[in-house]
Automatic annotation (TrEMBL):
Official protein name in the record: Ester cyclase
Pfam families xref list: SnoaL (PF07366)
InterPro entries: Cyclase_SnoaL-like (IPR009959), NTF2-like_dom_sf (IPR032710)
Highest classification ranks of the organism: Bacteria, Pseudomonadati, Bacteroidota, Sphingobacteriia, Sphingobacteriales
Superkingdom to which the source organism belongs: Bacteria
GO biological process: polyketide metabolic process
Gene3D superfamilies registered for this protein in UniProt: 3.10.450.50
Amino acid sequence: MKSNKEIVSDFINATNQKDWDKVLTLVDNDFVRHSSSEPKQIKTNIELVKFHQAELETFPDLQETIIFAIEEGDFVAARINFSGTQLGQLINFPPTGKKLTADFNCFFRVTEGKIKESWVEYDNLNGLIQLGHYKIN
């Protein structure tokens, strides 16, 4: 039986490979994603796949890499690196062709071998600065 950290790693790898069938086997049907960023909440594994597919329209070369992960009981805390070039629309921001490289925090709840819930937080201001959408004087 795989550890919860291995399940999370498999999920990140399947997402990077755009293996949506595999993602659906790793994420519970009633999965919930929480975030202070849009979308603030995703309520099914299908919605999660659609979110990642839309993200790929903005960042077609998107790759996520786990920097480290800590497992305790049903929970996995992970620091993950996001890397991608903005070649599509990002909310109201036009494509810039610039690469975004940013680390974010994600907490996963894994039960019975499936990811049931996640909490994701990004430094959105840093991302907008890297992409050239926001300048600090």
